[in-house]
Amino acid sequence: MALAWLCMCMTGGAAWGQFTDGINVEFGKNRVQYRTFEWQYFEQGLFEVYHYREVDQIAGQVARILEEEAKDLGAVFGRTLEGPVQVLVFKSQEEFRQSNVGIMTSQDSETNIGGTARLVGSKMFLYGTGDRLRLERDVREGLARILFNQTMYDSQWTESLRSGNLVQVPEWMSEGAARYAARGLDAESENRILDACQTGAFQR
After folding, report:
1. What domain range includes position 165?
2. Please, which pLDDT band fits residue 144 given cuts at 50, 70 and 90?
3. Do residues 89 and 53 lie in contact, with contact meaning Cβ atoms separated by under 8 Å?
4. What is the pLDDT of residue 130?
5. How far is CA 166 from the centre of its chain?
6. Number of domains in the chain
7. 3-state secondary structure of 40
8. Which of 60, 107, 189, 193 has the fewest C-beta atoms lying within 10 Å of its C-beta?
9. Is the residue at 119 inside a domain?
10. Separation of alpha carbons 93 and 199, rounded Å
11. Which residue has the higher pLDDT, 146 or 24?
12. Mean pLDDT for the chain?
């Protein structure tokens, strides 16, 4: 199990941007927008859930999932999640793309915005797919990443993320730890570990 914790890896780059409260929100670099987003929010425990009118139902589902998963993952990491955590909910991947969120690392193209959850520091961005189980999984993985960062960097974690003054943890370790905390050792992860070991993909 310890090996699995260290060696699990997953796809997906980090999203970078900035959050501004209010109408006509923009994140990161400009993309063509076909609509504006009139944001409103409600508080759910440690979470501030931002949404617009068309995603009221999804936002309610997300809020319930956040509360449940935060307690469960807190037990896994042996700590309580530090808040507030801002969560922005979109109706679809198309509308998520229009929001200017998800400026990828230099290795990723603009068309490679995958997954239903992205993180910017302590902010989580989600979009709906109609698949409740996938939503639960992605919320759990997003929270696991936040808890991993808080565990590694303690109370200075958000400042460390902003300044780039971080302990250099290999991506395979940070992403693998978060995924293992969220999913355990499933068949997909076992196959990826085997493939990575055979190809020498893990680096210190």
Report:
1. 13-185
2. very high
3. no
4. 87
5. 18
6. 1
7. strand
8. 107
9. yes
10. 33
11. 146
12. 72
**Is residue 124 a part of any domain in this protein?**
yes
d(CA 161, CA 97): 24
Cα 62 to Cα 185: distance, rounded to the nearest angstrom? 25
DSSP 44-100: ETTEEEEE-GGGHHHHHHHHHHHHHHHHHHHHHHTSPPPS-EEEEEESSHHHHHHTT
Q: How sure is the predictor about 8, in pLDDT bands with cuts at 50, 70 and 90?
A: very low
Task: Give me 141's structure tokens.
Answer: 């993985």
Q: What is the pLDDT of residue 60?
A: 93
Cα–Cα dist 92/95, whole Å:
5
Q: Which amino acid is residue 193, in one-letter code?
A: I
> For residue 88, what are the β-bridge partners?
50, 125
Model pLDDT, residue 204? 56
Residue type, 60: G
The side-by-side arrangement of strands in the sheet containing 123-127 is 40-44, 47-51, 85-90, 123-127, 117-120
Mean pLDDT, rounded, for 21-37:
50
What backbone torsions phi and psi does residue 152 show, to the nearest 5 degrees? -70, -40
Among residues 83, 65, 190, which one has the least CA distance to residue 126?
65
Comparing 45-59, 106-120, 146-160, which segment has the lowest mean pLDDT? Answer: 106-120
The full length of the chain comes to 204
Rounded CA gap, 41 and 30, in Å? 24
Residue 106 within a domain: yes
Answer yes or no: is 193 within a domain. no
Residue 125, token pair as written in the block:
């961005």
Which CATH number characterizes residue 38's domain?
Answer: 3.30.2010.30
